[in-house]
Write a structure and sequence with these properties.
This protein is an alpha+beta fold. Helices cover 14% and strands 35% of the residues.
Length: 319
Amino acid sequence: MVEKRFAHPVLDASALGEAPVAVRLLGDDLVLWRDAAGSPRAAPDRCPHRGTRLSLGRVCDGQLECPYHGWRFEGSGRCAHIPALPAFEPPASHGLATLGVVEAHGLLWLQLQPDAPLPRFDAETDARLRKLNVGPYVVATSAPRIVENFLDLAHFGFVHEGWLGDRAHVALADYRTEPTPTGFVATGCRAWQPKSNRLSTEGSWVDYRYELLAPYAALLSKLPERQGGYRDDIALLVSPVDEETSRVWFRMALTDFDSSDAEISAFQHTIFTQDQPVLESQRPKRLPLSGEVHCAADRSSAAYRRYLKEHAITFGVTP
C-alpha cells in the first residue's frame, strides 16, 4: 500500500497519558502507550497470544499489559513477562511488531514504514507566529474528499456565505498550479471575504496560496499584503481512519496573539462545521478519479486528482 510510505497523524499528543489508547489507521486497529521514559509507542491492537485487544489493558512500569492473561510487552515490543510462567523467557515470536511514532505539531504520527516522512510545515519554527491545533473532527467521508474541499475556492460564497465569501463575489481569478516535490502549489488565488479571520471587522480581498504537502495534508497561507500584515498559515492534517471515515486536525500558525485559544478554535470550528455536512453528503464518499465533470475553476481539484493517479494513491479513492 503506497499510503504506508507516509506518516499519518492519529492522536493529540496530550491525549496519551498513563493508559493505552486505541486508534485506527488505514483500516487497521492499533494501540498507543507510553513507555517507562514517557516516549510514545505503537503496535497492532492484538495480543499475539489469543488476539485480545491490548488497548483494553493497562500500562505497568511502561510495559503494555494484556487484559486477558497479563502478558507484558516492552516499548520495543519484546514480551517481557508471562504471569502464568514467571520463570519462562519468552522468545521473539511472542512479541509485538512495533511501529514508529513521532511527536510533532502537537500530534502523534505513526510511521508504518521506517522513516516515513511527515508533512513539512515551515511556519512551525517561526517564533513570530502563534501555534495551536483545532480538532479533531471525525468526518464520515474519505480523506481525499476532505483534502479536495480544502483546496477549493469556488464554494466560499455558498458554503461559507457571510464568512469566507458572499454570492456577489463568486467569480474566481485565473489562478495557476505548478508541481512541487510534495504535490503542487496553487498561486494567484483571490477571494472576497466578509470575515477572513476572527479579528476582521470589514470585508476585503484576500490573496491565498495553497500547497499539497502529502496525499492527505495541505496548507493554505493567507498572504499579508491585503490583511494589514496579518498572516494565517493553516495546515489541514487528515488521518485516513477507514476508506470512508477520517479524522481531521487544523494546525494554525497566526499573527493573532490577542484572541484566546477558545476564540480562535470557535472561528475555525464554525468554518469547518459549515463544510462537514456538505462533505458527508457527497456520493460516492471515496473520491472518484473519473465520472465527475469539471470546469476551469477546478484547477486545484484537477491537480490533486492527477497527483493521486500519478502516485498510485488508492485509499479513499475510486478509479
